[in-house]
Design brief:
GO terms for molecular function: ATP binding; protein kinase activity. This is Protein kinase domain-containing protein. Pfam families: PK_Tyr_Ser-Thr (PF07714). The protein is α+β, with helices and mostly antiparallel strands and 301 residues long. It has two domains: 95 residues, Phosphorylase Kinase, domain 1, CATH 3.30.200; 140 residues, Orthogonal Bundle (Transferase(Phosphotransferase), domain 1). The protein is 34% helix and 16% strand. Strands 1-2-3-5-4 form a five-stranded antiparallel beta sheet. A three-stranded antiparallel beta sheet has the order 6-7-8. Strand 1 and strand 2 form a beta hairpin. Helix 1 runs parallel beside helix 6 and helix 6 packs antiparallel against helix 9. The protein starts with 17 loop residues before the first helix and ends in a 15-residue tail after the last helix.
Length: 301
């Protein structure tokens, strides 16, 4: 399958010496992950979400929603202000739900919003404040990333053309390295992400990528999640075979998803396995088929 993937990069874009650059990138990705991740078993963090968020709990009036950034059926993501006790303010990204959201929708926000709580790393976006009181919708606040969601940013670059976006392929490779650093740090702490994708990353003004949790992603990116008859929406096209078939998550299944994210970067956030029906994906992978190499992507990369 050698059809040109949407948003694929030109030969000129993929460096003047693509083989050398791609080979260096492959080495760098492996080094970034292996040096900081111990060879030990990794277990999901099973702490109570409310207990974790309670450590950063603030009063309802402390987090102020201002501009709507993304919305779904019940989820809302705003830019806003966090008021500190000493009178200082901080620009934040706020995830919340509408009035009248179901208990399960509230539980999803709190559970997924607490995944990265307390994990500090340059490539991790962790919550800095939360409102969990029952008097109104919960809110989870994060440091504001000026360039916003990585998937939406890449898609906007595809629409205007990569030459006009001033986004180099070298920068795309650096994005992948930064995500690898963030995931490696999570794994070194024994934390599995379980939903690595460009939709769950943000970009700051200096084009630094930070991996975030997947709170509200099912709602604001509904096309990326599918139900396979088990009443659970899952990121099917980003999932490893063992996860699809047995719901078995490991560090390796996270790295599989990282590989799909790298493909997203090379195609400027095209849909992976777009031609494959979700119900047929397990058989497709079991038969040995994989994502098509984007046109003009060097073999080494």
């Amino acid at each position: 399958h050698k059809e040109r993937a949407p948003g694929s990069l030109t030969n000129h874009d993929f460096y003047s010496r693509p083989k050398e650059a791609a080979s260096a990138t492959k080495t760098a990705l492996g080094t970034v992950y292996s040096l900081s991740t111990p060879a030990r078993s990794i277990h999901s963090n099973s702490s109570n979400p409310k207990d974790k968020l309670r450590r950063i709990a603030v009063s309802p009036g402390t987090i102020i929603c201002q501009q709507l950034v993304q919305e779904g059926t019940y989820g809302r993501i705003y830019s806003g202000i966090l008021h500190h006790p000493l009178g200082e303010t901080r620009d934040v990204l706020i995830k919340t739900v509408v009035d009248g959201a179901s208990l399960s929708q509230v539980a999803y926000l709190l559970s997924e919003g607490s995944t990265l709580c307390g994990i500090s790393h340059p490539n991790i976006l962790f919550p800095v404040a939360a409102v969990t009181e029952l008097s109104g919708p919960p809110k989870v606040a994060y440091p504001l990333a000026a360039k916003g969601n990585l998937k939406l940013y890449l898609q906007s670059c595809r629409e205007i053309g990569i030459q006009n976006s001033q986004l180099s392929t070298r920068q795309l490779v650096e994005f992948g390295l930064q995500v690898a650093r963030g995931i490696s740090h999570l794994h070194s702490l024994g934390v599995l992400h379980k939903d690595i994708a460009t939709r769950n990353c943000v970009l700051d003004v200096e084009l630094n990528v930070r991996v975030c949790d997947n709170a509200l992603s099912r709602d604001v990116f509904p096309g990326d999640y599918h139900c396979l008859g088990d009443n659970e929406n899952r990121p099917v096209k980003w999932m490893a075979l063992e996860t699809l078939e047995k719901k078995f998550f490991t560090a390796s299944s996270d790295i599989w998803s990282l590989g799909v994210l790298l493909w997203e970067l090379a195609t400027l956030a095209a849909m992976p396995f777009e031609e494959v029906d979700c119900f047929e994906l397990s058989a497709y992978l079991r038969d040995g088929y994989r994502l098509a190499q984007p046109v003009n992507c060097p073999d080494e990369l």
